[in-house]
Design brief:
By secondary structure, this protein is α+β, with helices and mostly antiparallel strands. Helix content is 44%, strand content 29%.
Length: 90
């Protein structure tokens, strides 16, 4: 019986450390990734976005894997959905 409680006592700090790590690092990162994915899926024509490269653009047409964006009146490009940093709310 003594050996079982020793193992539990030695594992307790590890379990507490993992729980702290989970609630301070892993869980917030998962919530942020989920919110970013929902934002990308919710993009529609006319939305203003900023890319990971810092380019400010307007969504012309969201597609399955790419988003067609307008940089100015003459330039329209396709970017991958992974490179959308955030949606700009004006």
């Amino acid at each position: 019986m003594q050996g079982g409680s020793d193992i539990f006592a030695s594992m307790l700090p590890l379990v507490v450390l993992f729980a702290i790590f989970y609630f301070l690092v892993i869980r917030p990162q998962q919530k942020q990734a989920k919110a970013h994915k929902e934002m990308i899926e919710g993009l529609k024509k006319g939305d203003k976005i900023i890319t990971n490269g810092g380019i400010y653009a307007e969504v012309v047409k969201p597609e399955e894997n790419f988003i067609k964006v307008k940089l100015n009146d003459e330039v329209t490009v396709k970017i991958s959905k992974e490179y959308v940093a955030k949606k700009v709310d004006e």
